[in-house]
């Protein structure tokens, strides 16, 4: 079974999960909004992973590299537990829409991450040619 976890500082994870649910009608995405209360994040993550089957494929999405939330997920990384940081909506959407009947490969995830980077654009300087006048 494939599991999806979105974790962030404050409410980013909750908002991203809510948006993914709206766009995909997918249930089962787990969100962790860290540091909102006195919940101990390492304990919360351990209890979550303890509830999974050891063979479950887990896609962990966090807000930023080097951040405390991302660091807490690093010990759980292995060949079927994937950690992606700096998550954005295009990346999360591509990940959750991957066919459930095929394991996610490192190559597939790498491709999704690369394509998602293309959605981070400084629009003031973006010109795709569609607004140019024909003179």
Overall geometry comes to globular
β-strand amount: 15-25%
As a percent range, the share of helical residues equals: 25-40%
Structural class: alpha/beta
Helix and strand sequence: EHEHEHEHH
Number of continuous helical runs: 5
Largest sheet: 4 strands, parallel
What is the number of beta strands?
4
Distance between the termini: 56 Å
State the strand order across the main sheet: 2-1-3-4
Radius of gyration: 17 Å
What is the mean predicted local confidence, pLDDT? 93
Low-confidence parts: none
Detailed description of the structure:
The protein has about 140 residues and is an alpha/beta fold. About 35% of the residues lie in helices and about 20% in strands. The chain has five helices and four strands; from the N terminus they run βαβαβαβαα. The chain has a four-stranded parallel beta sheet. Helix 1 crosses helix 4 and helix 4 runs antiparallel to helix 5. The N and C termini lie far apart (about 55 Å). The model has no long low-confidence stretch (mean pLDDT about 95).
